[in-house]
Amino acid sequence: MNEILERLKTLNLQIENVYPVKGGNLNDTYRIESFSKKYFLKLNTAQNFPHLFEKEAKGLKALAETELFDIPEIITNGETDNDFQYLILDWIEKGDATIENWEKFGHNMAKFHQNTNEQFGWSEDNYIAIMVQPNSYKSTWVDFYSNNRILPMIKLLADKKVLKPKEIRAANRLCTELINIFPEEKPALLHGDLWNGNILTRENGDITLIDPAIYYGHREMDIALADLFGGFDDAFFKTYNEVFPLQGNFEDRKQIAQLYPLLIHAFLFEGYYIKDVQAILKKFQY
């Protein structure tokens, strides 16, 4: 930490105090206080998760460039000589969201998803949490979701011996049926990890985004994940559907979009997430 503080001195932030804060299970996080401003500092090892914060900063910039959300300002990111990487953001004082704020957030997310691309993927691999997320471009969502999302995670869980052979076969069957599950849509710009821990309400009530795992994918991935762990007001979903309606029978296929984040959680935390994964895969066992 002392090396980090010495590095920060070169930024002329006029640091007065540094306080540990709760910021998830995967990074060390701190509030930095200067004489006139506050900042948010994230730390992790550079060796275990190469370029983690560099890629996060790129994702935040991509979100900011849409001009739809008041994304926290990136102060700086980098690495120390002692295998630490860091990211410093402007500190966000938290407030409470009204129904109107949730409606605005749903409207802006619908507009955000209308940013499109010729192919599914992203210009480089990035991270979701601390998991490397393959983003090689694919021309179809079926190809991308199968080979860049589901099957790599199934292999990791199979290597941990937490999935049975019949469940691995079921995952492969699921992938062959994706063409009949997801409606065809243009690639949409996604946050990629849209759960309630990655949204922040500012003092004025506006809801903003943090910790992106950004890529061009099927927009139902973001909406399904927002629904998976709760914390999103119904006004968000209602307004989203008014601005950019989801295609019919979304509820019938929502679990398939939720499979990827559940696979991530099953790998990182196991617990009941494995059972959730197994319940989805069971429907594809013959």
TrEMBL record:
Keyword Transferase: yes
Pfam families: Fructosamin_kin (PF03881)
Keywords for this protein: Kinase, Transferase
InterPro entries: Fructo-/Ketosamine-3-kinase, Kinase-like_dom_sf
Source taxon at top rank: Bacteria
Coiled-coil features, chain-numbered ranges: none
GO molecular function, one term: kinase activity
Signal peptide from the UniProt entry: none
Family: Belongs to the fructosamine kinase family.
PANTHER family: FRUCTOSAMINE 3 KINASE-RELATED PROTEIN, PROTEIN-RIBULOSAMINE 3-KINASE
Name assigned to this protein: Fructosamine kinase family protein
